[in-house]
């Protein structure tokens, strides 16, 4: 493992380096994923560009009620941010369930998304929150919906000279209730067997869903929204029968694999169980 370590101090300098070095360079943020891959020779970059010294990538900003979270903000800072906890509690919870304290102190939200792991903890909540990704490169700037970032396990739509700059989240409806549940063998230190995010706006004085979104992690090649489950619940009450039908639909639309952590059948069943739990928890919240 031999590479030149570059530490741009500004976004402009970083974009210049990406333009000059293209595919010969890899971006490093917390390095919790990249360093493992480099050590096991899955990647062999000539240059590594550390983005953690770029001030605008390290900020969480309240943008008229919406959030702009710099790609290099650590998941620990996201999890303890009073603004994120207040406005997007499911994202704060998901970030608090990543790895150990040591991992959370360096792992970044941008790295979690760009790693494109099916079991990414941040992605199901961000999909439910309709988040977007602001991307910069020597060719300029573009913003895409988060679901447009993912191609498959470890694969994003970002070109080698593109940098995820910021995660943007629209303001949340004041009545929004949300939850994130992680099921794993060894608590937060282990990757999820399933990760379930759910978000709902219920009509006042009734349990009818005005808005309902369900995000699934670790049960498909990429984190996904459970659209069939959402369709079953939209405009209907969060009653046990409807919840059961939606949870089954979410299990049916998942495409899990068997691996060292769990079999595909077990994962599918856990989608049903944890979507049920998540929706019941939302119903119980005021
Ligand atoms: C012991 C351990 C436990 C873990 N537990 C969990 C867990 O419970 N849940 C979970 O989701 N993950 C877990 N992970 C995986 C990993 O730590 C996280 O996904 C983390 O958020 C990755 O962020 P990072 O900043 O360390 O990324 P890095 O390792 O720095 O980068 C990851 C990848 O993204 C690219 N990249 C990083 N930032 C950008 C950017 N701004 N623009 C473009 N590309 C970029 C890098 O080039 C690299 O390919 C764990 C890892 C370890 C080692």
* Strand/helix succession: EHEHEEEHHHHHHEEEEEEEEEHHH
Q: Residue ranges: pLDDT <50 for 5 or more in a row?
A: none
The strand count comes to: 14
Named at the architecture level, the CATH assignment of the largest domain is 2-Layer Sandwich
Mean pLDDT: 96
Query: How many strands, what sense, and barrel or not for the largest sheet?
Result: 5 strands, antiparallel
Strand content: 25-35%
Helix proportion range: 25-40%
CATH class of the largest domain: Alpha Beta
How would you describe this protein?
- This protein is of the alpha+beta class and 286 residues long.
- The protein has three domains: 4-50, Uridine Diphospho-n-acetylenolpyruvylglucosamine Reductase, domain 2; 55-169, Uridine Diphospho-n-acetylenolpyruvylglucosamine Reductase, domain 3, CATH 3.30.465; 176-284, Enolase-like, domain 1, CATH 3.30.390.
- It has helices at residues 11-21, 34-39, 75-80, 82-87, 89-96, 101-104, 109-114, 123-128, 227-233, 240-253, 264-284; strands at residues 4-6, 25-28, 47-50, 60-63, 66-70, 132-137, 140-145, 150-152, 155-156, 163-169, 176-183, 194-202, 209-217, 224-225.
- The strands form four sheets. Strands 4-5-10-6-7 form a five-stranded antiparallel sheet. Strands 11-12-13-14 form a four-stranded antiparallel sheet.
- Strand 4 and strand 5 (66-70) form a beta hairpin.
- Helix 9 runs antiparallel to helix 10 and helix 10 (240-253) packs antiparallel against helix 11.
- The radius of gyration is 19 Å and the shape is globular.
- The model has no long low-confidence stretch (mean pLDDT 96).
- Bound molecules: flavin-adenine dinucleotide.
- Flavin-adenine dinucleotide binds at residues 26-34, 51, 71, 75, 98-99, 103, 107-108, 110-112, 114-115, 119-121, 158, 163-164, 188, 191.
């Amino acid at each position: 493992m031999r590479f030149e370590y570059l530490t741009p101090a500004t976004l402009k300098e970083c974009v210049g380096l990406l333009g000059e070095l293209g595919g010969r360079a890899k971006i490093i943020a917390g390095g919790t994923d990249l360093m493992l891959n480099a050590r096991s020779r899955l990647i062999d970059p000539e240059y590594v560009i550390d983005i953690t010294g770029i001030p605008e990538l390290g900020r969480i900003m309240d943008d008229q009620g919406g959030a702009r979270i710099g790609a290099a903000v650590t998941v620990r800072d996201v999890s303890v941010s009073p603004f994120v906890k207040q406005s997007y509690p499911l994202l704060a919870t998901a970030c608090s369930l990543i790895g150990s304290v040591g991992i959370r102190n360096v792992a970044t939200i941008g790295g979690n998304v760009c790693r494109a792991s099916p079991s990414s903890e941040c992605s199901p909540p961000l999909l439910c929150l309709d988040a977007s990704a602001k991307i910069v490169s020597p060719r300029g700037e573009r913003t895409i919906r988060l679901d447009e970032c993912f191609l498959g396990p470890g694969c994003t739509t970002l070109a080698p000279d593109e940098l995820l700059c910021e995660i943007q989240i629209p303001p949340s409806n004041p009545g929004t209730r949300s939850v994130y549940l992680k099921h794993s063998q060894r608590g937060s230190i282990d990757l999820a067997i399933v990760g379930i995010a759910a978000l709902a706006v219920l009509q006042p004085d009734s349990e009818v869903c005005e808005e309902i979104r369900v995000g699934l992690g670790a049960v498909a090649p990429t984190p996904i929204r459970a659209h069939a489950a959402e369709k079953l619940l939209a405009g209907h009450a969060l009653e046990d029968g409807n919840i059961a039908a939606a949870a089954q639909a979410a299990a049916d639309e998942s495409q899990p694999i068997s691996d060292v952590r769990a079999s595909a059948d077990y994962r599918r069943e856990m989608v049903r169980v944890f979507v049920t739990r998540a929706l019941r928890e939302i119903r119980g919240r005021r």
